[in-house]
Amino acid sequence: MGISAISIFKDIPEDMIDMHFFLKHSLACAIISRVLCAYKNITQTEQLFVSGLLHDIGRLILYKYYPEQAKKILMRAESSKELLHQEEKKSIGCKHTDIGRDLLKKWRIPFSIENNVFYHHNPSGANNQVHATIVHLADIIAHSLEIGTSGEKFIPNFDHKAFDSLGLSPSCFDSVIRRAMHQLNAIEIFFK
Known about the structure:
Blueprint: H1 2-7, H2 19-39, H3 45-54, H4 57-65, H5 67-80, H6 84-92, H7 96-106, H8 111-118, H9 129-144, H10 160-166, H11 172-186
């Protein structure tokens, strides 16, 4: 379902965003979210997989339907060294997370996924903070490892409060990253 949703946007021009890299970033977030769930013994692994896959879908709306504004946002964010979601808020008055939440509501996607997508940059504010924090961490890890891109040039801010409430030891990340990379490499054939 998530891949079908993203494929709706396959005709976005490459000078806006390379959809190959967007999908790779989205899949990395999905896989890392699922691995973090398994590490925490959370049973909703597929729900978190879909949340990770769709976390930046609001950006695709911007790229496809508002390309001129999106190009300006991308340029301003890079020159000001601001995160894209901060520049989105300044430039158009909302963030890709707002747009993603509205789209998922329209598609009648479960509220839990909508919540994770909306709060992935601010998981401390989420109804289910644990799940939103998992997507938040997956996004940060994917950016840190430079796996694909959603257009963001910088690593998103880390929500320390949300991470502390998750109760994960930082020592788990080596194992999480190895498992996620193994799974991502197994599906790498789809990118060629």
